[in-house]
Amino acid sequence: MTSLWVPGFDIAKYQGEMTCAKAKRAGLKFGYIRGAKGLNRDEFTLRNASRAKRNAMLFGIYLFFHPAIDIGQQTDLLIQLHKSTGATLVPMIDVEAHDALAAFRITRGLHRMVTRLTIAVGKPPTIYTGAGFWNKYVHDVTYSHCPLWTARYAHKTVAQYRADPVPIDPSKWAEYAFMHPRPLPVIGWDRPDAWQFAGENNRCGKRYGASSLDLDVNIMREESLHKFLVAA
Predict the structure, then answer these.
(1) 19 and which of 60, 69, 209, 216 could share a cystine (Cβ 3.0–4.6 Å)?
(2) Tell me: the pLDDT tens digits for 119-142?
(3) Sign of the torsion formed by the C-alpha atoms of 136, 90, 183 and 196
(4) In whole angstroms, what is the distance from residue 188 CA to residue 196 CA?
(5) pTM of this prediction?
(6) Burial of 33 (C-beta count, 10 Å sphere; 0-12/13-18/19+)
(7) CA nearest 197: which of 66, 7, 59, 65?
């Protein structure tokens, strides 16, 4: 189990400055850094991307997609951040925001964004979402060519974490994650390429170099890594 997955993190401004050297020493292999929420840029993006690059860590930039904000501008911003930071992994689109016209706006906006990113980067972006959100608000089957990154947490409270902590050794994360409920099927994909299995209340932040107490931690299929590598 553990040889088939690689461990990594994803961060936004809430995690502050990331000590990527510490993350790498601990055994984390990749990281995704939020570039913006809609058109609101994260203040730590450039610093954290620079640290990842300086430590030769695989990293990508993601954008929290907002269906009601100009799609062209959001796409331009993500492309600009991807290129200016020298990201080595394809951009990620974080799809979890909705409004009264959710399905229509998301489907129309995502199609435009995915098409433009694929042309700009040379590969499709990865889509981050949860089954509960996607299957209810989007339920679109046309994105199976994009790597799927999904969320399903092993625990949601401090008490649960204390009774069942994430292993200190990231090489054991996959074994730990599969002891808990697996991600639910997401319409349009056969299986996820990456799994965010713990986030809030996991007390993993300081351990792996974040300024925050908690940290989103993930595992990626080793056989899917080529889908994420920009140069592969």
Answers:
(1) 209
(2) 999 999 999 999 999 998 888 899
(3) negative
(4) 19
(5) 0.95
(6) buried
(7) 7
